[in-house]
Amino acid sequence: GVLAAHGAELAMKAAKEVGEALRDELPQGAFCVNIHWVDSPPSSNIAWRRHILRVALVCEESHGVAIQQAWQQRPLCGGAVIATWTAFADTASPSHGLRVATMLAGRRRSGLDERGLLMELPQRWLKLPADGSSERIVQFRKGQHWFQFCSLFGKVSSAETVVQKDSEIAHLLVEFAFSDGAYAMFEALTERYLFNPGNPEVEDTHPAVCAVGRYEDLRREAIR
Known about the structure:
Elements: E1 2-4, H1 8-25, E2 31-37, E3 49-51, E4 53-58, H2 61-70, E5 74-76, E6 81-83, H3 94-110, E7 116-122, E8 135-140, H4 145-151, E9 156-164, E10 169-176, H5 179-189, E11 193-195, E12 205-207, E13 210-213, H6 215-223
Antiparallel strand pairs: 1-3, 1-6, 2-4, 5-6, 7-10, 7-13, 8-9, 9-10, 11-12
């Protein structure tokens, strides 16, 4: 959690300072690969509002616990921001897998026809036609990267991306032949991060924000 004042500019400075401090404090072999606000960067001018900053680390669980203990009421930006590390979750642990499986248990029992999955992707990861349209839907064919990626989790009936103009985010929309494929992809990615190995300049990662449901409902949500 981060307590910040004076809006977006200070929030950006605070997030940058968190990243620089973690690079200095993490042990050898541990890395900070993503920092992002849970909802959106703070923009309010009301002083001392609480905002949540999420940090993705590649490290041993013991390192994460130690960092959480060290980051309590830590002043940043000359004291204008106070940072407290409120929680640490090891997404490689069996308990994480069990928790996500429990989230899906009721949906599986309901027998709903939830063969769809919708996931955020950065537009920069996609090769899209520059046709100037305000909204683009691009189908992926079998053999193309994102079709094959989704096929790791089950038989894919269709895969497409929905891109809206003036947005940095696209949506990957997948229809699986069976709901087990959508559930398997959700279970594997929830609360984790995607990594783009094609960018050698930075650790190019993005949080895996995804939802399962009826394909038709998710498609309406993506293109509205």
